[in-house]
Amino acid sequence: MTDCIAEPLTFSRLKRQNVQADFRGGRLTSDGGGFLLREMDRALGSIDAIDACIPDPRNAFFVAHSQQTLLTQRTFGIAPGEICGVGSDAMVQAIPLTTVAAPL
Fold first, then answer.
1. What domain range includes position 52?
2. Domain presence at residue 81
3. pTM above threshold 0.85
4. Which residues pair with 20 in a beta bridge?
5. Are 92 and 46 in contact (CB under 8 A)?
6. Are strands 17-21 and 9-14 parallel, antiparallel or unpaired?
7. Which of 21, 52, 18 is nearest to 34 (CA)?
8. How does pLDDT run across 45-66, given as a tens digit for each residue?
9. Which of 12, 36, 88, 97 is 20 to 30 Å from 19 at the Cα level?
């Protein structure tokens, strides 16, 4: 017999929104692993560490998105299988990715 998780899993808040995973059905997504990746990154500071190691030669006057934001989007885009970045515009519209990669 399978042991089902009855209690919801609570993740870090996204601005004023609570983020939870439960297993009662409703609106479903298979991209929930991104939330676990986000929690791991917050605990370990992986993207911050990578960002600190890579110099950003861009002129700040022309920069719309920080290097850290681009690294975050790329990391959370590659993790679920978007290897080459093709289709990243569509992925940005996906609720799980925008929630996982959003700044706090």
1. 9-22+31-101
2. yes
3. no
4. 10
5. no
6. antiparallel
7. 21
8. 999 999 999 999 999 999 999 9
9. 88
CB 80 within 8 A of CB 99: no
* Percentage of residues in the chain having pLDDT higher than 70: 62
Tokens 């799980």: give the residue: 96
Work out how many domains the chain is built from and give that number.
1
65 lies in some domain:
yes
Residue 87 domain flag: yes
Q: For residues 96 and 8, what is the distance between their CA atoms, to the nearest angstrom?
A: 17
> Going by C-beta distance under 8 Å and a sequence separation of 6 or more, which residues neighbour residue 4?
23
Nearest residue to 100 via CA among 64, 75, 65, 66 = 75
Q: What are the residues facing 21 on neighbouring strands?
A: 9
